[in-house]
From TrEMBL:
<dbReference type="InterPro" id="IPR044150">
    <property type="entry name" value="HDAC_classIV"/>
</dbReference>
<protein>
    <submittedName>
        <fullName>Histone deacetylase</fullName>
    </submittedName>
</protein>
<feature type="domain" description="Histone deacetylase">
    <location>
        <begin position="22"/>
        <end position="291"/>
    </location>
</feature>
<dbReference type="InterPro" id="IPR000286">
    <property type="entry name" value="HDACs"/>
</dbReference>
<dbReference type="GO" id="GO:0040029">
    <property type="term" value="P:epigenetic regulation of gene expression"/>
</dbReference>
<dbReference type="GO" id="GO:0004407">
    <property type="term" value="F:histone deacetylase activity"/>
</dbReference>
<keyword id="KW-0378">Hydrolase</keyword>
<dbReference type="Pfam" id="PF00850">
    <property type="entry name" value="Hist_deacetyl"/>
</dbReference>
<comment type="similarity">
    <text>Belongs to the histone deacetylase family.</text>
</comment>
<dbReference type="InterPro" id="IPR023801">
    <property type="entry name" value="His_deacetylse_dom"/>
</dbReference>
<dbReference type="InterPro" id="IPR037138">
    <property type="entry name" value="His_deacetylse_dom_sf"/>
</dbReference>
<dbReference type="GO" id="GO:0016787">
    <property type="term" value="F:hydrolase activity"/>
</dbReference>
<dbReference type="InterPro" id="IPR023696">
    <property type="entry name" value="Ureohydrolase_dom_sf"/>
</dbReference>
Amino acid sequence: MLSIAWDPLYAHPLPENHRFPMLKYELLPEQLLREGIITEASLFVPKPLAAAEILRTHHEGYYQRLLAGQLTRQEERATGFPWSEQLIRREVTILGGTVECARRALEHGIALNVAGGTHHAFADRGEGFCLLNDQAVAANYLLAHAPGIRKILIVDLDVHQGNGTAALFQQEPRVFTFSMHGARNYPHRKEQSDLDLPLADGTDDATYLQLLGQTLPRLLDAVQPDFVFYLAGVDVLATDKLGHLGLSREGCRQRDELVLRQCQQARVPVVVCMGGGYSVRIADIVEAHVNTFRLAAELFG
């Protein structure tokens, strides 16, 4: 049975230009239940993560100002979110979800967070609708608390480069960061991941899948990770308003299958976070995400 982190807070109302994509956090679990891919027992409500664990990754001064609503106007504009106590509870709960998913993946092979993938958050600041970096926090949690975890691979296939994640682990040899993203997309100033594969606008299914299929098996063999975090953003779709790539829903599904099957065959536990998705039709976003869960159920269920 899959373990899936979800909380009603995930659908926290945000500014008008982000209310539409936030609908997926309500619709995704509903669709999974409707199709019988999961049962209610598959869902767990995560607890907000303790500050001590957050501070393994984020600077205390930044975190305290975030809690107190003391970000400057410039900092708030960079995040894209107006501050509220409920927003911060949401972010800390997402962190708790990804950390709990990591614990459960160690036992069951896989766990998924309906939210997460906040890869633009740095140690001392937020950017691009990311305030705290959930996969980085969970990776540091495992390195601190799971003795068998000596090497972690982060596979970031969101259309945007995981700049915050790359910066956080540039001096950490136990975490290998891999980002495959739109070359001309946000962020305009890229950080250096351990491996970056920038893609041209309009990259189609065949080109994308060939490159990923050539890269990921070799990477797993070279890195020999004990754990994988996978950021499965669906903003790679051709229908995405912000992505500028050319993948179909079937191509996106094959991408997920490639990653999850490689992890399964290598017997490496994996946590999946949903990342971005801004297609014009909410059905395209939800269906692409549902495919990720279908595959997880088929391969690991």
